[in-house]
Amino acid sequence: MKLLSSLSLFLAAVTLIVHAEDKAQPTTKTPAVETKTSKVVKTDEEWRKELTPEQYRVTRTAGTERPFGEAYEKFNAEGEGTYYCVCCGAELFTSHEKFHSGCGWPSFYDSSKAKGVQERVDDSGGMHRIEVTCKRCDAHLGHVFEGEGFNTPTNRRFCINAAALKFVGAKDAKPELKELGQAKKDAAAIRKADEEKLK
Ligand SMILES: [Zn+2]
């Protein structure tokens, strides 16, 4: 009898432990879902095909164009309109935020309301700067500087390479957003094939 009660006590303990472990386990595995479906991802080769060598160097390798160059002169002559990403067509700046800073590169005191511009810390070259990129395709656009004393509403200067911008006048049709790119499609196809295998 004594042995039997010890056994049931032991079994009860085991049951308790098993249940405790059950609770500790995650219920269901969440599948890896692509949330940023609108992000443009292309291979180096694809970008090279679509862009001029200067556009490619600036936007895809974080290059800087020569100040006071031809593209800058053109930028200064442009009137009312919108500036789009030369790589993917996302809206980045408008002529309303454009101002003359005299630095030799296109200057804006703010990005457009479309919020297509993202900022990130850039500690390259022994300098601490804020890099400005396109939110949709990660194209390098330039840098943003603060507190330089320019008489603008934000006291910020988005110092942007003209080669990264596509200007469209106020009366012209805006460019179409470019598609996601082969690299993105390949990644999606591989993921789908993997999911099929798991079924
Ligand atoms: Zn872009």
Please give a handful of descriptors for the protein shown.
199 residues, 3-stranded antiparallel beta sheet, alpha+beta, 20% strand, 5-stranded antiparallel beta sheet, 8 strands, Metal Binding Protein, Guanine Nucleotide Exchange Factor, Chain A, binds zinc ion
Q: Label the CATH architecture of the domain at 44-170.
A: Beta Complex
- Over the alpha carbons, how many angstroms does the gyration radius reach? 27 Å
Q: Order of strands side by side in the largest beta sheet?
A: 3-7-6-5-4
Helix content: 25-40%
CATH topology term of the domain at 44-170: Metal Binding Protein, Guanine Nucleotide Exchange Factor, Chain A
**Strand-residue fraction?**
15-25%
Give the secondary structure arrangement, pairings included.
Elements: H1 2-24, H2 44-50, H3 53-60, H4 70-77, E1 81-85, E2 91-94, E3 107-108, E4 117-122, E5 129-134, E6 140-146, E7 156-160, E8 165-169, H5 182-198
Antiparallel strand pairs: 1-2, 1-8, 3-7, 4-5, 5-6, 6-7
This protein binds zinc ion.
Verbal overview:
- The protein is an alpha+beta fold and 199 residues long.
- It has a domain at 44-170: Metal Binding Protein, Guanine Nucleotide Exchange Factor, Chain A (Beta Complex), CATH 2.170.150.20.
- Helix content is 32%, strand content 20%.
- It contains five helices and eight strands.
- It has helices at residues 2-24, 44-50, 53-60, 70-77, 182-198; strands at residues 81-85, 91-94, 107-108, 117-122, 129-134, 140-146, 156-160, 165-169.
- The strands form two sheets. A five-stranded antiparallel beta sheet has the order 3-7-6-5-4.
- The radius of gyration is 27 Å and the shape is globular.
- It starts with a helix and ends with a helix.
- Bound molecules: zinc ion (ZN).
